Amino acid sequence: xxxxxxxxxxxxxxxxxxxxxxxxxxxxxxxxxxxxxxxxxxxxxxxxxxxxxxxxxxxxxxxxxxxxxxxxxxxxxxxxxxxxxxxxxxxxxxxxxxxxxxxxxxxxxxxxxxxxxxxxxxxxxxxxxxxxxxxxxxxxxxxxxxxxxxxxxxxxxxxxxxxxxxxxxxxxxxxxxxxxxxxxxxxxxxxxxxxxxxxxxxxxxxxxxxxxxxxxxxxxxxxxxxxxxxxxxxxxxxxxxxxxxxxxxxxxxxxxxxxxxxxxxxxxxxxxxxxxxxxxxxxxxxxxxxxxxxxxxxxxxxxxxxxxxxxxxxxxxxxxxxxxxxxxxxxxxxxxxxxxxxxxxxxxxxxxxxxxxxxxxxxxxxxxxxxxxxxxxxxxxxxxxxxxxxxxxxxxxxxxxxxxxxxxxxxxxxxxxxxxxxxxxxxxxxxxxxxxxxxxxxxxxxxxxxxxxxxxxxxxxxxxxxxxxxxxxxxxxxxxxxxxxxxxxxxxxxxxxxxxxxxxxxxxxxxxxxxxxxxxxxxxxxxxxxxxxxxxxxxxxxxxxxxxxxxxxxxxxxxxxxxxxxxxxxxxxxxxxxxxxxxxxxxxxxxxxxxxxxxxxxxxxxxxxxxxxxxxxxxxxxxxxxxxxxxxxxxxxxxxxxxxxxxxxxxxxxxxxxxxxxxxxxxxxxxxxxxxxxxxxxxxxx
Length: 686
What we know:
By secondary structure, this protein is of the alpha/beta class.
């Protein structure tokens, strides 16, 4: 493997020339031996979860941003490469979906065979060594994914997605993608000598893709457990001559104890013998960082998990991941002697830009970028008042209300004249942009007036399709019990500060179900954990659940409009339901059609849910955008307490008084009463 060395072992002679004494009692180690070590420093770089954010541009706010974009990351990549003689660059997926540019290329001006997707116009310029597919790569279907991947100049790997052999055979071993690659590279050691080295790279995706994209994947592929797959292929990679193995799981760290088929399996992957570096993602977090300190086997200073150098560089190109390996050649084999993982941000610690955007990347995607901007600016209707999600996690919210209204409108038309006509239709929606994943700017904020496509994309981020499930009143309650995990348990006996919102619970799982009214009692423990496992079977947070003003009948049938992600998932209350509508229409397009038909919409939330009053002298707080203070309507309920180091604002919330069992609903009912009264008076005067 190693080229013939011409090193001159002169250290011993030099030492004598300078009058140094060389001990004779320990002949096993000589100065020549020390200087003749073959040491290679290999830098491995990662991007992940770009989500089509190629330009540093916010399509929802229609403005340039310094906070994300591959064009910014590209500058970091070039800087990191310039510092190292030997480097490799990998991407970890969730690349082709996630913003209006991705939708434009997939839906509005569909990519054709022979055309290069803009993500590869950009990434080919950066000379990536390999890529892995993320779960969102499947959102537009396998055909579009295949067409997109043809534009990549670098290989793609994935080991745990297999061809469905139609026989339901779990032992099917025909991979859908190339499971791994052995990259032949030439590296330079610390003495300037060149060596041939084989770098094995293997990729993984959460097996939950079979739930999340069931409509695109069922009958075509199957997905297997990440760890089981790694244990199968890593020894094969070693047998094929891999000197160094890099694993690229599109998967978060996960729990120390796992049971198989995990969505987040990186921790267990670090225990698979033979893996030298792990480039992970999916969770949109940053590793190494203090937020992961305290986990058994994790060293956040070295950036290792169970001794393996590991990195997760955020999302949308806001960070670059680096794993620096020191390799030593011993007895014909390369051994990792030191590891240091780290990330670099496109922002300075004070929030100012650390780098400029790379102009070559901006130029490469200019055509599609400008077409997307023109598309998202086109109008679909008007709103009578602002729509924002600043309070979406602590009160009924207009940004969710519009979604649930549109879904209900669609499903009621869809079932008209069918066997389901007459069954009450409810509608479930969740806040997608509510400071998600520790981003203080990640909120919906649409001013009153014209609503454009960019605003609808802001209301509904994902290309989900509308579906409806048939379930019972009892199922509705369990669904809501799961959603109520969004909140921490509040102790009414203490005046110590208590945070209302559970930061570990994903906001897109906080479903509000419109068409029923209910309260959430946060003094009770959550019935389910964030994964849907029953943890407190006797706890009931959902109180006063009513339909048409009466306690809900647990046996009564309901149709609930939702999306394909939720309808095919494992949420309590939903997992055993029957899907009765599988619409081909995306939820976003349904919202656009709804607004276009209504022309002018009233985005006020109907207040169908509230918190059960909490007695005692409690001090309850939550975090949201600093901008939220401009939208406080009830100064008795909310108070701005100040800015946090995180960039969020801290607010207090009063849960002492009942808000009249749903004030927004009362307001609309009162408005209707007054309208009818005026109409009746007018008729009497005729």
